[in-house]
Description:
Elements: H1 12-17, H2 19-69, H3 82-88, E1 98-105, E2 110-115, H4 117-124, H5 129-143, H6 150-155, E3 159-166, E4 174-181, H7 183-233, H8 248-273, H9 279-286, E5 297-308, H10 311-316, H11 320-340, E6 344-349, E7 352-357, H12 366-391, E8 398-413, E9 418-423, H13 425-435, E10 442-445, H14 446-452, E11 456-460, E12 475-481
Parallel strand pairs: 8-10
Antiparallel strand pairs: 1-2, 1-4, 3-4, 5-7, 5-8, 6-7, 8-9, 10-12, 11-12
Helix pairs in contact: 2-3, 2-7, 7-8, 8-9, 11-12
Amino acid sequence: MRSFIGEEVIGxxxxxxxxxxxxxxxxxxxxxxxxxxxxxLFGVRQENTMRTEMKRRAVKISQITASLGxxxxxxxKTDPWALSRSFISLVPQMDENILYIVLVDKNGKVQGSAINxxxxxxxxxxxxxxxRTELVEELRQKVAGKGSSRAILSQLGHLLxxxxxLKPEExxxxxxAVGFSLNKLDKEIYKSRTTAVLLLLVFILxxxxxxxxxxxxxxxxxFKVVKAMENVQKGDLSQEVxxxxxxxxxxxxxSFNFMVDGLRERERIKATFKRYVSEQVAxxxxxxxxxxxxxxEKRVVTVLFQDIRGFTSxxxxxxxxxxxxxxxxxxxxxxxxIFKYEGTLDKFIGDALMAVFGAPISHPDDPLRAVxxxxxxxxxxxxxxxxxxxxxxxxxxxxxxVTTGEVVAGNIGSEKRMEYxxxxxxxxxxxxxxxNSGRGQILLCESTYNAVKGNIKVxxxxxxKVKGKDKPVQIYEVLGIIS
Length: 483
């Protein structure tokens, strides 16, 4: 039987880690890309929103502080910055993110400052004690207007400096500098990013699980089909795949079942054909390698009739079971030879058999095939009779008649029972000639002789009168094959 799935059958591991793996990876990649893209968009938007809001708060607080710092400024002639200095000390309490605040007059002199000690401690708390003391001192110097802020800013984390000019009635009085620490904001952003990554991983895991389930739901029935196809390739036509889904996989399974039903039917037909024709002929017919007509047609064929001589007298001395056993043994050998030369077993008629060479499959040398078959049958009977003699049972002798001519071939019978056979004068003549043959004789009609002369040794008989013919018929007895 030919392979239905190629020279190499797909195995279970290939199915599980081939298509399933591809589907899982593809689904996971798609989920990861979508989630990463969505997470990135929302994360960027959230970060921008938080940073914008923090800057707005910083500017707002600075403006409020600056405005409050200028209250009563003109009335205080002796110390106009006194109220501002007292208010500045309370500013760090307004927002926990304010690290320092510095009030400078128009001459650049620091009039007031404050440091958020708690926030500063949290920022430098994990540093080396000597470095922590140095940072605190540098920040105080900076607040006092005596130090540089570059080194400090680089070690105190992410700072947002805001400076507001003090210009009541468009008269510049000084400026207010406020330093906002963005460390807490950065921590919140880090938490947000971490949460987004964790959610991404969770969704990826969910995607992997979902894709694995999806891949499994697809590959399981596919593997059933492939496994069944592998068994069909080995010759097991009892396979049937049960898939309840109505998707493409279900359609594939139903198509496979339909195909196997067809193969089973083909095998049943083939087995039936093999009872009448050789295996080669059956393969040709079922393989549609030749055009075969079974409905009825005229064909030129060679018909072989063979009958056991003295069968009546033999059967009268034997019990029924021995008669059946003898016929089965005899016919088994004869049919093998007919099939060997691609003839068709037409029918059994008691102890006689009829074979046809040229229908339903024809060959250019059908007459020669028929005659060679008859010669080989006689040789096989010699060996068979030697065995029968050892068993103490009567020998079997046959006579044979072979004719060639036009017949009508086709299915003949009724709706309930039909058989493929040939009818015509050629068939009747073969039967008549066989009736004139003796033990071990093979007789040919003239048309058969003309078809095989040069290959077969014959002896011409005197024309004989046969039933159904007005004129005597020329007969030839086969003597052997010309080597």
